Amino acid sequence: MSTLSWVLAGVVIYTAVVLAADRRGLLPDAISVSGPLLTIHTKRGRRFLTRLARPKRFWRAIGNVGVGAALVIMVGTFVLLIYQSAQIIESPPMESTLQSPQNVLVIPGVNDFLPLSVAPEIVFGLLVGMVVHEGGHGLLCRVEDIEIDSMGVALLAFLPVGAFVEPDEDSVDAAARGPRTRMYAAGILNNLIITVLAFALLFGPVVGAIAVADGASVGGVYPNSAAADADIAAGDQIVMIDDQPVDSNAALDDALAAAGSPTVSATLADGTETTVEQRPLVTRMIADSPFATGESPQLTTDDTITAVAGTAVQTNAEIHAAAADADSPVVEIAAEDGETGETKRLTGPVGVLGSVAPEGPLSTTPAEAGNRLILTQVAGERTVTFGDLETALDDTTVGETIEVVAYADGEADTYTIELAEHPEEPTGTYIGITDATGLSGIGVDSFGIQPYPASTYLSILGGEIADGVAVVLLFLLILPFAAVVDPTLNYNFAGFVDGNMAFYEAVGPLAALGDGGVFLLANLLFWTGWININLALFNCIPAFPLDGGHILRTSTEAIVSRLPTTAKPTLTRVVTTGVGLMMLISLVLMVFGPRLLN
């Protein structure tokens, strides 16, 4: 049985037991049961909220700030959901793991993006978010003289899924629109405040006390690769190749290039030494590569390249040299089949595979925009990899005329183009090629590890990777789904967990807490901030029963009250119901659209 099946079975058993106890009157009156949901009600705390609410003018001013923030987020949320829905309808994306049923549930160990190892931190962040959210509602109830019937917490089985403040309905109806709006926006504002505090502490002292450990971080190892044969595994740190120290992921490539031999000695952080016999494993194939199309045989992932243009090869550098030194750009590649062990022989042009960019220099030639080309020579220089292309353009200038030799559908053509200014690099030149990849779309790794982007994630956590608060928050929000949003990252980030803790170390004064203490503090702050910003955004969706729906109603009432119409209540209901339905449809499309429309 899957983890989700076990969880569902446990919820069913729990529900049956709790319902049976409720029917027999074994539960206290303060506990209410509705299926698997259990709510605990209390009237305690109202006196404390009443005392806390005494500087009413101050709290009303804060509440007005919350209303402004909520309205801005509500408008943004509405526009974003409508835009996303239109995009899904116009061009339905393929279903991703984000839409899997278990990933809709915020349950660590069941949700693929929420590992069980950070369940305590996630539950802590959820409890903080719910308490401050409902506490905000309760406080503003007392500020605006709205009576509170009860307060409490809601549990799904043993998991806290919500807190609540039950204001007296008659008291709410009797309150003016301004007080009601401030009361509904208070929870959202509190979540935003907690987000700011949590991330401010994370960006500053906590992330400042964490550094990337020296070495190349092994996030994963390709099956059937040289590293796998050498018993290198995920979580290892490679600190030396032969006698050359390795202090980063980039340094590993430099050390392998400097080794001068396909057989190298790799030293791990724990002192283990192992011999790696490199061999070029195919790890990725672009669909329209000449070596992945046409009649069999075709080059596929898990194959191992053994020779290029008749020259035996064992490393990426040897593949590059053999292709560059061949008499013709069209070469034969020999490869060992990853499944059968048989030798494949394929022939095709080897160069930089890419698309002709619209409005670029190449698009003015017979190579029209969107055409896929294999560039084998640029400005008189042989181009096998993307690095060769950059080197060929290094000494060129904007306005200079050069020749480009490229293959399309197996036929070679020479294009004469006038170089333009690079759209992203003002000092560089541009030939008008996009989505470029070397070696005709063949991804090869002769060592066989997938590096973990430890420094990238630490930069995001420290708020250093982007300018502007909004952009930083966006990066933080997508961290748990990083590999889905940007497949080049390969790994999601759920905090400092067993899979990546070896790649970091505690430094500075906080190092006295030990690695475990610093990482725990970072995880608590990350998940508390992440959950609170998500609670604020979710509650700003303008649909009932969310806070955004209530704020939409009071705001609509305020606008409609100024219109010359006698059907004010009807018009208010039409607007709020219409917006709510649009939001519901948008959410359904975002979750189920890829499955329903494809």
TrEMBL record:
InterPro entries per record: MBTPS2 (IPR001193), PDZ (IPR001478), PDZ_6 (IPR041489), PDZ_sf (IPR036034), Peptidase_M50 (IPR008915)
GO cellular component, one term: endomembrane system
Residue ranges occupied by any PDZ domain in the UniProt entry: 200-272
GO molecular function: metalloendopeptidase activity
Record-linked Pfam families: PDZ_6 (PF17820), Peptidase_M50 (PF02163)
Biological process terms in GO annotation: membrane protein intracellular domain proteolysis
Localization terms from the record: Endomembrane system
Chief location bin: membrane
Source species, domain of life: Archaea
Record's keyword annotation contains Membrane: yes
Coiled coil: none
Gene3D superfamilies: 2.30.42.10
Transmembrane segments: 58-83, 188-213, 465-485, 506-527, 571-592
Record's keyword annotation contains Coiled coil: no
Keyword annotations: Hydrolase, Membrane, Metalloprotease, Protease, Transmembrane, Transmembrane helix
Membrane topology: Multi-pass membrane protein
Signal peptide residue numbers: none
Protein name per the record: Metalloprotease
Organism name: Halonotius aquaticus
